[in-house]
């Protein structure tokens, strides 16, 4: 996909991007199970909160994916990632995550949760160096489901 571009933006610049909360919410609602996606109001608050970082993927000039994270010193917690369903299975999520991880300093620890049933996402995360380190019982709602806790450490290569 040569027409895909990714940019990484930190707060407070995130909060200055018109309609970003609305566009991220629309992608999340299309990509996540019913009632599991963040609302536009939650995105709007998150985008203006200190220590937030987003990687945004555009395809043919249109925002089609995002990765949200909290970055504090040498630790990053990925809070969400979504690619619009029309463009899933084309490598965009891998490129989005790889671009984001490439911005992090060596030895940064990166954490995320993933539904135990989301085997494709688990495979993607393993390709990027994440390893399972635990389980969070009943972490997700809509439907209720356990989460795998995964971690990667950015190497200094």
UniProtKB/TrEMBL annotation:
Chain ranges of the N-acetyltransferase domain: 12-155
PROSITE patterns recorded: GNAT
An example molecular function term from Gene Ontology annotations: N-acetyltransferase activity
Stored InterPro entries: AcTrfase_RimI/Ard1 (IPR006464), Acyl_CoA_acyltransferase (IPR016181), GNAT_dom (IPR000182), YpeA/RimI_acetyltransf (IPR050680)
Keyword annotations: Acyltransferase, Cytoplasm, Transferase
Keyword Cytoplasm found: yes
Family stated for the protein in its record: Belongs to the acetyltransferase family. RimI subfamily.
Name of the protein in question: N-acetyltransferase domain-containing protein
Provenance organism: Secundilactobacillus collinoides (Lactobacillus collinoides)
